[in-house]
Amino acid sequence: MNKFSNNQPEPSNWEEQLELLQGYTLELQSLAREMVTLLRAHNESNWEQVYSNFAQAIGNSKSNRQRLKAIDYIHSIYGGMGSWNDFYLLALGEAEKQRMSLGIAIYNLAKKTKTQILTGPEEPKRSLWEKLKGKLS
User: Which domain holds residue 71?
Assistant: First the structure.
């Protein structure tokens, strides 16, 4: 599912980093939407909303801070009692296999994205005006 290989050259500047992160973001949003569709088909509205919120947050992210916030949100559902790891679709078989596959792909790509943000070229600082202008457009 994840079309980004580990053999890619590392970005050497912010423009290359941004292009890579935008690709990861689009793939995460696509995987999350696919999960939403699966969960909706099985009337799992609570988890559907979680993945819908993530798809929207990651898709609308314009900065590394916003990307990290969305990633931390989705990673927070893994672990603890009543977590995503404890959940399974009652329609076992292909639907559950797809849920597991999508969940793993989302988790791993989110982790890869977070690592890239933390270790790759830094996002340039923006002025207050640029931040405000970005929110208005």
Answer: 14-136
